[in-house]
């Protein structure tokens, strides 16, 4: 087989056919004959969730993951936080001419591994090739279909006093990827948190009907995601700076370089707003999983009517947080 | 609003929020609050079809369409040929920094128009921005979900004598796009056939249980798609050169520049293999639609066991056709 992707790998002819066979079917299996065409699926319920995400992360391999692992876990998590059970994925590749086929194989293997781990089936795919310099390496779109089973899901009905939980340390993915770019000028022993959270989150949904909303704080970080919730549902939310779980190394890099961990991307974390009475139960469940070992309550809903996110400092003063404004870092996912 | 896409439009913060509101929700409507997150869908059946396609066409605007129209019609057609009723679409954008927002609006409007025309709902989306020169303008992934209703669909059971029908002239899209690139050195009055075929094809499925298979001959053209069918189902297929519907202008360009219309891309055509007894009925139905006015029988299945596609010339000699081998033209869709 060739060593590098050529334009002919994307023209739908003989080389495309071989690429699909030798790389994609090799990794994903040929159980589904329609792997690279429309796939027929029989659902177990009538209620499904659908989400789509394109991944353009740079570099494509980083400590803790790759664009392939991320493309599966990212879409799995989007479904999981909605209360759906991730079931099916499609993947669409845009590849730059000259891209090493060995790298493509590594990426596709990561996708297959993560799909297996999270229990989703890759049912359809597509590959396009563009000329050298018309794309940067490889971009992957994954679209996911989830099934709503017998859980109550997110109620979207909030009360004053509801607790805000984050499932673990924030900013790990952002710092790990920046460090992998070599642009920080320092070496940091930080690994991306990139992981599929669906099994852990399903356990939370199964155990309580008190979940108001779940979200995954990816691009824009914890603060942007919470501002979105606050604005969408006209809530005043308060988080306590002292309770934020942040690794010492992440703190260190942020202090030196002037980043704010509240706005750094995460790829294996969930924000859970839950009835106050259920917060301990949810924390206990999260901590049973390696991905949730650092789960903590970071704040609460303190009012309704206005959409506001407040950060309370250790000295008791309050700061209004806004969405991320102006790019901290492009291509973080 | 800004005139050009900046990296901050892709970082998930304030500018991303405004781009979604001002461009995407403006065109697609805000009926679905989860437009840019996981969408919840209630299905009317348990059997669905799923397909995904990335579009990297160059130029993004061409006679007869745009990357936006194509991204909807292409995925709609992939579902329609499988016998499913296209119902839901997701869209994922990768946009180059500096891309004009006016062009993005035009593309998104084309998507909304084509979605309306074909009766599909856009339920989820995503936007990423990459640095200048890390992508060429805009790439769009669409993933489609179709519903199988009360039609028998494709039987995939073939018999000797089955007729091969093409729903209209071949090669129009390929030539129109090449001409739009300005690379042919000649002006050609050809418009792309880019169109959603779902209503026409649904009528065919409703009227007969004799459809063996339907496919849309896009990248790789009519010949590559037929070779795939022949190989996948171990059929000897024969098509007659004299019966191929090819516009005079397309013939002309192919003669001058040495292209083979059998390998040129189509974006509004279907190949239908149907029981011989049903072929007139199917042709009659196709011709009731503007997109099927030039539908004809071009050949038949003449044997089983081997996967072969033969082209019979007007003089009676037979030529074995293979898949497209080596790129004719990159980025045709």
TrEMBL record, chains A, B:
Gene3D superfamilies, alphabetized: PurM-like C-terminal domain, PurM-like, N-terminal domain
CDD domains per record: HypE (cd02197)
Classification via Pfam families: AIRS, AIRS_C
PurM-like C-terminal domain mapped to chain residues: 159-309
Coiled coil: none
Superkingdom classification of source: Bacteria
PurM-like N-terminal domain: residues covered: 37-147
Xref: PANTHER family: CARBAMOYL DEHYDRATASE HYPE, HYDROGENASE ISOENZYMES FORMATION PROTEIN HYPE
Family: Belongs to the HypE family.
Protein name: Hydrogenase expression/formation protein HypE
Gene designation: hypE
């Amino acid at each position: 087989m060739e060593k590098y992707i050529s334009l002919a790998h994307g023209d739908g002819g003989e080389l495309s056919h071989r690429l699909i066979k030798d790389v994609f079917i090799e990794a994903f299996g040929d159980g589904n004959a329609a792997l690279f065409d429309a796939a027929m699926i029989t659902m177990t319920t009538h209620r499904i969730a659908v989400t789509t995400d394109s991944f353009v992360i740079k570099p494509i391999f980083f400590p803790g993951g790759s664009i392939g692992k991320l493309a599966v876990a990212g879409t799995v998590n989007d479904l999981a936080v909605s209360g759906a059970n991730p079931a099916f994925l499609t993947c669409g590749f845009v590849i730059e001419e000259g891209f090493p086929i060995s790298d493509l194989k590594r990426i596709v293997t990561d996708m297959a591994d993560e799909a297996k781990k999270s229990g989703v089936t890759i049912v359809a795919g597509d590959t396009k090739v563009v000329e050298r310099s018309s794309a940067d390496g490889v971009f992957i779109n994954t679209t996911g279909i989830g099934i709503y089973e017998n859980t109550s899901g997110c109620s979207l009905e909030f009360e004053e006093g509801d607790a805000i939980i984050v499932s673990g340390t924030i900013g790990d993915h952002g710092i790990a990827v920046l460090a992998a770019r070599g642009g920080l000028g320092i070496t940091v022993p930080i690994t991306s948190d990139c992981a599929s959270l669906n099994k852990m989150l399903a356990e939370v949904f199964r155990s309580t009907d008190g979940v108001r909303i779940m979200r995954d704080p990816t691009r824009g970080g914890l603060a942007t995601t919470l501002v979105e919730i606050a604005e969408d549902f006209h809530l005043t939310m308060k988080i306590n700076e002292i309770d934020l779980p942040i690794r010492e190394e992440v703190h260190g890099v942020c202090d030196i370089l002037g980043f704010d961990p509240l706005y750094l991307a995460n790829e294996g974390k969930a924000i859970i707003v839950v009835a106050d009475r259920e917060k301990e139960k949810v924390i206990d469940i999260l901590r049973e999983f390696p991905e949730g070992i650092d789960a903590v309550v970071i704040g609460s809903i303190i009012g309704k009517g206005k959409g506001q996110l407040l950060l309370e400092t250790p000295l008791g003063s309050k700061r209004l947080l806004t969405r991320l404004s102006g790019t901290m870092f492009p291509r973080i996912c």
